[in-house]
Amino acid sequence: MNTPVTPEQQAEIDNLRESPRQTLRVISEGMEQHLYTAHPVLDHGFVRVVDYMGDDAAICQAARVSYGRGTKSVQNDEGLIRYLMRHWHSTPFEMCEVKLHVKLPVFVARQWIRHRTANVNEYSARYSILDREFYIPAPENLAAQSSVNKQGRSEVLEGDEAARVLDLLRQDAMRSYDHYEDMLSQDGQQGLARELARMNLPANIYTQWYWKVDLHNLFHFLRLRADAHAQYEIRAYADALCDIVADWVPAAFGAFRDYRMDAVSLSAGAVSVLKRRLAGETVAQEDSGMSMREWREFQEIWG
């Protein structure tokens, strides 16, 4: 695996980490350990924390609308955070923010950008030339199309078929980048403008951006993208972010895990079926009021 950061970026990171500054603002000791550290994701990608604001106490402070940390104990703060999460009181979580530097394949970025409740500034291929870096899946992540889920994968490709697909991915990526370079203005040729030459590049080329988001909307992102049903590539980034957030706001992340990530949401029909089952009734899909797909999802959880 190649190093995910350039020598220039690593020099900047090293310089920043070696020059700590005193501050009067509240800090999170867990998050301080992540500042400016590039956490590798996929083959060439990374996530790193550039800046952040707030901690668990900031959530409670906003909920109580008080000054400072007050007289409440850590245990009381955790109880309040769990109450806020349990009852969907989201505004206090918006008091915490994080700014991330992310390097990711373009096709992952196009999924990611659908979360519009954030501030984004992306590396511009209109002004700069993109690096020759492409996401090539590891063999264990090459899978056929699912026959029951139009958005999902099925069995992992093996042997000659896996090798054939990997060769095509590499060849197409390299060929398109060769043509990209050929189209740019160089060697005395007039060439094509960068903003036009980039249109020939594949969706697995890497881009970079700064992404700033509050904790409430970051939790929404993680609930969807760290889910087992999410596409593996974006889930890899979400999993890395989960580790960071758990160190940043441990009480809030614990509540989020319990009441969002690992929780189950029930429809009125599902509640009715559960009550009937608890009363000793045998309930089949035909008299449940659920569609076949709803029933299958219900059975996956409740049997």
UniProtKB/TrEMBL annotation:
Its EC number is 2.1.1.148. Its cofactor is FAD. Pfam families: Thy1 (PF02511). Binds 4 FAD per tetramer. Each FAD binding site is formed by three monomers. Keywords: FAD, Flavoprotein, Methyltransferase, NADP, Nucleotide biosynthesis, Transferase. Pathway: Pyrimidine metabolism; dTTP biosynthesis. One of its GO terms (molecular function) is thymidylate synthase (FAD) activity. One of its GO terms (biological process) is dTMP biosynthetic process. The keyword Repeat does not apply. DUMP binds at Q111, W112, I113, R114, E122, Y123, S124, A125, R126, R198, R225. FAD binds at T91, R114, H115, R116, E122, D214, L215, H216, H220. Coiled coil: none annotated. It catalyses: dUMP + (6R)-5,10-methylene-5,6,7,8-tetrahydrofolate + NADPH + H(+) = dTMP + (6S)-5,6,7,8-tetrahydrofolate + NADP(+). SUPFAM superfamilies: Thymidylate synthase-complementing protein Thy1. The active site is at R225 (involved in ionization of n3 of dump, leading to its activation). InterPro entries: Thymidylate_synthase_ThyX, Thymidylate_synthase_ThyX_sf. Belongs to the thymidylate synthase ThyX family. Homotetramer. Catalyzes the reductive methylation of 2'-deoxyuridine-5'-monophosphate (dUMP) to 2'-deoxythymidine-5'-monophosphate (dTMP) while utilizing 5,10-methylenetetrahydrofolate (mTHF) as the methyl donor, and NADPH and FADH(2) as the reductant. This is Flavin-dependent thymidylate synthase. It comes from Paracoccus onubensis. The gene is thyX.
